[in-house]
Amino acid sequence: MSAHAAYRTLRLLLAVVLIAAVPHKLLDPAGFALAIARYDLLPTAMVNTVALILPWVEVLLAALLVSDVLMGPTLWLTNLLFAGFTAAIGIAMARGLDIDCGCFSAGTTGSMILALVRDLVFLLLGLILALLYTRAIAPSRAPAEVIEEPAAWSAPGNEPSASEQNAS
Q: What is the pLDDT at residue 53?
């Protein structure tokens, strides 16, 4: 698989992951806020705000991944989001919590270790995508270098003669 094909596949895969996580959060913001609160990582005053904003951040990032626009910042934020999810689940596990991760559905308690492994895989895929972007995709999108005129040509009265222009 070429770097461009892998890049396109990973972009779309991560966009699908982000979109798949959104419906229950938008349809049941109170349930999602409760899932966030159970992690006991945020001040109570921030829980509802995060529950209302986070799904829209996921939608925005998915749209940017699909449209292949602003990829530098998009990949940075997507990986930061996956790292945050991974860290939150890891902290909850370290504290002995067995809670609904709030990831893809509300009100279901599943294996926290499975959720952690899943989020680590998403983070790894995001990091691979960022590496592909910086190594193979971004350089191919860079504009061609602009060739500047010699400094002597820019001074008034120092324009090149017709023979000098034809020589270059």
A: 96
* CB < 8 Å & 24+ apart, contacts of 112-115: 115/89
Whole-model pTM? Answer: 0.78
Task: Enumerate long-range contacts of 43-47, CB under 8 Å, 24 or more apart.
Answer: none
Q: Residue 112 is inside which H or E element, if any? A: helix 112-132
Low-confidence ranges of the chain (pLDDT < 70): 106-110, 142-168
Task: Specify the residue for token string 């191919």.
Answer: 140
Length of the chain: 168
Token representation of residue 13: 């895969």
Nearest to 127 by CA among 9, 34, 3, 10: 10
Name the token pair of 137: 């995709």
